Amino acid sequence: MNTIKTQELKIIPNKLTESFNNNQYILIIHNGIPFGVALPFSAGLMEQGLMPWMALKAFETGDLSLGQLANSLGKNKVETLKMLGQLNIPIADYDLQEDLEAIKKL
Fold this sequence. Notes:
The protein is of the alpha+beta class and 106 residues long. It has helices at 6-11, 14-21, 43-48, 50-60, 66-73, 77-86, 96-105, and strands spanning 2-5, 26-30, 33-38.
């Protein structure tokens, strides 16, 4: 999850724009305490609703596990996996080329 301090918003506002361009949400911190959330306006946000959308984004970035995502959506893991497939959200961050190189080294 990306974070930004309220003071940084004045100094480097492009950090917010970059997060939006990458379809990521950003947690705004004020005096060390979570103050707000800024998120890009997207079709997914409108179709899924704010809380499920945020949970899906947190899963994509690795901030939530599959079990935590399922619980937050009120679904079981099978239903959640099916939904992730329909939304084309990968369930694992997997780099085949990296694994092939490791196998060659072995």
